Amino acid sequence: MFMTAEVLGKFFLLQKDSLRGFPMAAEATTNSFLFVRPRPMFANNIKRSQMMMACCCSVGEQVFSVTPSNNYDVDYLGQSTKGDLNLNFDHLDVFGIDGPATLQGPIEEVAWKEAEVAKNLLNDLGISSPPSARNSSRGIFCSRTLNLSLGFPVDGLAFDPDLVIRGLVIDKEKGNLVKADRFGYVKRAMHGTRMLSTQDVSEMYGRELVDLRKENRWEFLNTLFSVSEAVAYMQMVDRYDEGAISADICPPDYRGLYKAVGKALFRAHVEGQLKSEIMSKPELFVEPDPELPLALLDQKEAGKKLLLITNSDYHYTDKMMKHSFNRFLPNDMGWRDLFDMVIISARKPEFFQMSHPLYEVVTGEGLMRPCFKVRKGGLYSGGSAQMVENSLDIHGDEILYVGDHIYTDVSQSKVHQLWRTALICRELEEEYSALIHSRDHRATLIELINQKEVVGDLFNQLRLALQRRNTGRPAQTLAATNMDDQDLTESMQKLLIVMQRLDEKIAPMLEADGELFNKRWGFLSRAGLWDKSHLMRQIEKYADIYTSRVSNFLYYTPFMYFRSQEQTLAHDSYSYYQAQINGSAVDSTGAN
């Protein structure tokens, strides 16, 4: 970037824009220039400007630093009296300045003197001094303190696909991201972008559960849109903790910060910035699945009626569907030929809860007219799920609704219309692969835990025997009561050492479980080694079937009967174990 430096008397100046390469913001000063005193060391006047420029470029990062706004000093009125640009006195020797010693004397005298010097400098430059601007008809008059150096510190924000996964929950009260099991117990947590220790998680969430009904506090990440939002929010939490976000631009808490982030992303989505970018180059954002149109074609040719219901507008829907479908359909079919009805701007989830006016799209430009009766092959805007049922003369479980949003698509269509539901969860393919490759690891881990459980049970029996003997009561058996104290203690010590060594091996393996899917959060569908995640609980509750993509239907006939697996219960393993014991006893009796 072009940088200029000029010698003006005993000062040299750098245009403010030239400091953009440095870590401080361009708004670090309200003046047009930054100035410092140069070291009087030049022997060659011809090279003076170039030498000064090189000098400043090499030390600019060290001389200046930026203080977060909430760390400013304040006066007795509670207002900031200090800007965010500071001098690092340790590096001022480059300019021949000896830190505070350069400005010795009573501060009142020094302030007036330096102000006069600066005023003369501005006069030489032809720049009006601030008092001149204020004391004029063009002045800006302040009735309440206002700092124009506002704005979120968004430099350096980046989308990290490994930072957040679907199914996590934002704790808007604490600025945390948590992973909960199906009961709501928090298993892992992250504050900002820093993972919390097991002890921190226990202290913070040991006495409370994640309750998604409390929407003011908890935000469930159930879509890929929400994943992007969480990635941005957690990075902003770091900046908030560092003091880089002023209370002037955001309510002073994590909940207010979440609202601000969500509002910014919502604006980008609703105002069309995001969709316009995608529509301009869909090949950069959309990976067409050649099998998807063929899977739907099988269903259509089997006599099923196909509907497309989307919240997107006509132009975006038409562009994306043409890009994703038309090239893969046979016999010059277009995407519209697949569907008996297309509904755009459906306003889900309200689409399932209430009725909105229905309009028919009548031109290729998206012009619409009011409509009161639908026809086959029509393209409509608005309406309701009840209208769909009435027009097709089908109801409830005669409809299979396929969507990728647990709340907007799956749960609402299930709760309000009793439709059958299929959830699309794209991450399943990666998770399935990770589970397969983790099979040996998990089998070894389970074996170690089972070994510790056996050793622990033995240890606890000996411990109980010792406890009873120490209180003067008999142990569980006569032999245990009469056992030598030293023998009993030594046996317990050995078992305790065994358990400690098992723990040393189990702990890192537990920590690593699921890292093939995500190093921070583990598997999408699991919370810990044994239990299901909160996301998996939602899927089981609202989705009749779930899969990674719609095109997977191509590998099943349109007449498939999907049967759920047997659901195991906690006492099933004990019943099986008892049956095995009883079977062995019968075999032994029979043999005799």
UniProtKB/TrEMBL annotation:
Glycoprotein among keywords: no
Gene3D superfamilies the record matches: HAD superfamily/HAD-like (3.40.50.1000)
Superkingdom in the source lineage: Eukaryota
UniProt GO molecular function: 5'-nucleotidase activity; metal ion binding
InterPro entries, A to Z: HAD-like_sf (IPR036412), HAD-SF_hydro_IG_5-nucl (IPR008380), HAD_sf (IPR023214)
Keywords on record: Hydrolase, Magnesium, Metal-binding
PANTHER family linked to this entry: 5'-NUCLEOTIDASE DOMAIN-CONTAINING, HAD-SUPERFAMILY HYDROLASE, SUBFAMILY IG, 5'-NUCLEOTIDASE
Membership in a protein family: Belongs to the 5'(3')-deoxyribonucleotidase family.
The protein's name in its UniProt record: 5'-nucleotidase
Species this protein is from: Salix viminalis
Lineage per the UniProt record: Eukaryota, Viridiplantae, Streptophyta, Embryophyta, Tracheophyta
